[in-house]
Write a structure and sequence with these properties.
This protein has helices at 28-45, 63-74, 89-106, 115-119, 123-130, 134-152, 164-176, 180-185, 208-218, 234-248, 252-264, 269-276, 295-304, and strands spanning 17-19, 24-26, 54-58, 78-85, 110-114, 157-159, 189-190, 198-200, 280-281, 288-289. By secondary structure, it is α/β, with parallel strands linked by helices. A six-stranded mixed β-sheet has the order 5-4-3-6-8-7, sandwiched between helices. A two-stranded antiparallel ribbon has the order 1-2. α2 (63-74) packs across α9. It binds Fe4 H S5 and zinc ion (2 copies). The site of one zinc ion has 7 residues, from α1. One zinc ion binds at residues 8, 10-11, 13, 27, 29-30.
């Protein structure tokens, strides 16, 4: 992780990690401190939430969502977890184990929903039944259930573990297509509006290498494997393109994303307002929607009456997250 003999920038103790974008090496304690400060700065700069807010953390069993939950609890925030079992073969079975063990070991409150048990479908089946790429069916299901859990549970904000690498890769994808509607909504915090809860991403100033180091140093067991459906998708390709640029000129990735947020996002603010449009309530579940029945309820209707489809059958279908 770091060249032999390297010293921590802050205390000159032996370093455990080199961070070229900070042009420095850090010992374990100062790496943890850097992570705490970067999260605190994001929460503060973007006015994400305060100490009295009730936070619902969307956890997947991967490093980022468990790291953000751990960091929020350590910082004294009131944060509960929410997990959706997606029915993506062994990946989902293992994710469930990591998330439940994390919460149980720390005595944290976790709510879980299982798509197959609670709604009668899983992501491979929804993908096949609705002819959507799996990530589209998955994204819609997760967004709906996060929103519902937050509203039903009286939470002030939904937090996700998206990190700098994730956000920069999504930004690159949106810029390559000049997808203005997505660009306008790609913010570290989205206010509550039209029945949707506030959403915040406190790790946008931390790279995935830094969140992995946080987990390692804090003894957090997480599922290292990515979702099998993600393998080879455009998002991962964009991440690797940005990593090559970063290797040539460190800190380009953070400049690309953070300067977008500071300089471009305000110019797109009108688009965000326009994109939310006029919404009514779903006749079935009361969620905000543009139609009579919301997209999630329609997806459940189609997917829950379809023959179950094994994950292997949809692995060739890629999609954006
Ligand atoms: S879990 Fe779901 Fe991701 Fe898997 S199917 Fe796609 S969106 S890649 S974060
Ligand atoms: Zn140090
Ligand atoms: Zn509905």
């Amino acid at each position: 992780m770091v060249a032999a003999g390297s010293k921590c920038r802050s205390c000159r103790a032996p370093a455990v990690i080199d961070l070229p974008r900070h042009n420095a090496n850090f010992c374990a304690e100062h790496l943890l401190q850097l992570c705490r400060r970067q999260m605190a700065k994001a929460i503060d700069d973007y006015d994400m939430f305060g100490p009295d807010d009730r936070i619902l953390v969307a956890v997947s069993g991967g490093k980022d969502s468990l790291a953000v939950w751990d960091m929020l609890i350590e910082a004294g925030y009131r944060a509960d977890g929410f997990y959706v079992g997606l029915g993506i073969g062994d990946y989902s079975d293992e994710s469930t184990e990591y998330v439940t063990a994390f919460a149980a070991e720390r005595g944290l409150h976790l709510t879980t929903v299982d798509l197959r048990e609670d709604y009668g479908y899983d992501i491979p089946t929804a993908s096949r039944a609705t002819k959507r790429v799996p990530c589209s069916a998955c994204g819609m299901s997760k967004r709906h259930l996060f929103d519902k859990a937050a509203v039903d549970g009286g939470y002030d904000v939904v937090v996700t573990g998206h990190n700098l690498d994730d956000e920069a890769a999504v930004l690159l994808g949106n810029v390559l297509h000049w997808d203005i509607e997505y660009l306008a909504r790609q913010l570290p915090v989205l206010p509550a509006a039209n029945g949707f809860p506030r959403k915040a991403k406190p790790l946008v100033r931390l790279t995935e290498r830094e969140t992995a180091a946080w987990c390692l140093l804090r003894g957090i067991d997480y599922l290292v494997e990515e979702c099998p459906i993600a393998a080879g998708n455009r998002h991962l390709h964009h991440k690797s393109v940005l990593n090559s640029i970063e290797q040539e000129s460190p800190s380009t990735k953070s400049a690309f994303y953070l300067n977008f947020i500071d300089n471009m996002a305000p110019l797109l603010a009108e688009q965000t307002a326009a994109a939310s449009g006029d919404l009514r309530r779903c006749a079935r579940c009361n969620a905000p929607t543009t139609g009579e029945v919301c997209g999630f309820c329609r997806l459940v209707d189609t997917a829950s009456t379809h023959e179950p489809v094994p994950v292997e059958l949809v692995l060739g279908k890629r999609g954006r997250r």
